[in-house]
Amino acid sequence: MKLSKELSAFCARLGHDFERPELLMRAVTHSSISSTTRPDNQRLEFLGDRVLGLVMAEALLAADKQASEGQVAPRFNALVRKETCAEVAQEIDLGAVLRLGRSEMLSGGRRKQALLGDGLEAVLAAVYLDAGFDVARGLVLRLWGDRIHSVEADARDPKTALQEWAQGRGQQPPSYIELARSGPDHAPEFTIAARLQTGEQAIARAGSKRKAEQAAAQALIDKLEAGNG
């Protein structure tokens, strides 16, 4: 099987030449365009998620030999979450070669965070099946790069901090209320309120629920700290 010019260019960006090009073809095929003769990438995505997880677990333990499980876990979550996978996918322009159905294309599927993140995991699985774990590990470490060593800042979790603040004062965990959602499907904006049992709250907006919740939690922490200052 010979790859198209676009997929060959993607292989150059990825840094891997496939011995079995059909693996890459499957990795970039979304369920919206799949058929009995054109399988989608969902099984590869499942496998790629596990490949990525093992590489990151190894890398984090090697980077900090004294870290406890409680310290490593949030760093791990920050590195393997869908948003990070989508960022990496954007850096290698994976969206340009995704094979999508017409409805997904019209709704901006090539820019959707979930599709990009899932697609990248499928590509990692394709590399693993094509060349083995050592090659897949090298690819992940190269694509994630400095993120692995600078993850501590990203791993700080305002939602956890706010929950600990509330529980330390005998309160129930904070709640997060979606107040509004606007914008098209491929670029939504969520408005979220973080609210304590006592009624104190803060509101934030972001392009994903997770980011909006994190921002609202941080805004509420800042408000509480200012009130105590």
Can you put this structure into words, describing what you see?
- It is a single chain.
- The protein is built from 11 helices and 3 strands; from the N terminus they run ααααααααααβββα.
- It has about 230 residues and is mainly alpha-helical.
- It folds into 2 domains: about 150 residues, Ribonuclease iii, N-terminal Endonuclease Domain, Chain A (Orthogonal Bundle); about 70 residues, Double Stranded RNA Binding Domain.
- Strands 1-2-3 form a 3-stranded antiparallel β-sheet, covered by helices on one side.
- Helix 3 crosses helix 4.
Which features characterize this protein?
single chain; 229 residues; mainly alpha; Ribonuclease iii, N-terminal Endonuclease Domain, Chain A; Double Stranded RNA Binding Domain; 2 domains; 3-stranded antiparallel β-sheet; 11 helices; 9% strand; globular
For the secondary structure, the number of strands is 3
Mean pLDDT: 90
Q: Which structural class do you get from the secondary structure elements?
A: mainly alpha
Q: What is the helix content?
A: 55-70%
Structure described in brief:
With 229 residues, this protein is mostly helical.
Which secondary structure elements does this structure contain, and how are they paired or packed?
Blueprint: H1 5-14, H2 21-27, H3 42-63, H4 69-80, H5 82-91, H6 102-106, H7 113-131, H8 133-144, H9 151-155, H10 158-167, E1 175-182, E2 189-195, E3 201-206, H11 209-228
Antiparallel strand pairs: 1-2, 2-3
Helix pairs in contact: 2-7, 3-4, 3-7, 3-8, 5-7, 7-8, 10-11
